[in-house]
Each structure stands twice: as structure tokens, then as C-alpha cells.
Amino acid sequence: MKLIFDDYQIVTDDKQFIIQKKKVVQAGRFTKTENIGKGYWEDIGYFGKLNFALKSLGKSILLSNDELKVIMKKLNELESKIDEFTRILKEEK
Fold first, then answer.
1. Is 7 exposed, middle or buried (0-12, 13-18, 19+ CB in 10 A)?
2. What is the torsional sign of CA 11, 47, 89, 60?
3. Where do the structural domains in the chain lie, given as residue ranges?
4. Which residues contact 51 (CB under 8 A, 6 or more apart)?
């Protein structure tokens, strides 16, 4: 399963939910030139239950933004995504 929220995603393995944040490879002393600017997903949290992962995702959004308008926009997007996933899960039962 993979749930994507803008710069974050939640993926699963057979035991846990993993929150990942989208990052971009920056130039550095040991960075290969062909990798600079490429995107990748960095693990930022591991959770046993989806609701804990979603709560942590909201907290990450709050902590990674300074502007209230940006925070409100991202939290509203997260809320609508959660509603969408909940609706899909109910339809599949």
C-alpha cells in the first residue's frame, strides 16, 4: 500500500507503516554528478498502526512549515486525503 500526500508518503511492509519525505540529492563532496537533482524518499518514521502514522504526518507538516497559510492548506489536503482513503476502504468491505 502507498498513500501519497504531496511531499510525504506512507508505505507499508508486512509489519509496519512507514512515513517517508521526498528529498532531492544535493551536490556534495562524495555525490556523483549524475545523481544531483534526483528525487528520493527518506524514511522519517515507523508505526504499528495507520492512525498513529497519520497523526505523526500532521505533526511533521506543522513542524516543517513556518507560514500559517501553508500549514492550513497542507492540513486541509491531508484531511481530504484521509477522507478519500476512508471512503475507499469502506467501499472495499
1. middle
2. negative
3. 2-92
4. none
pTM check: above 0.85: no
Q: Which residues contact 26 (CB under 8 A, 6 or more apart)?
A: 36
- Residue 75 one-letter amino acid: L
Q: What is the pLDDT along the chain (93 residues), one digit of tens a residue?
A: 788 887 899 999 989 999 999 999 999 989 898 999 999 999 999 999 888 888 888 888 788 878 888 888 888 888 888 787 777 767 765
- Dist. CA 51–CA 54, nearest whole Å: 5
The single residue listed with the C-alpha cell 469502506 is 90
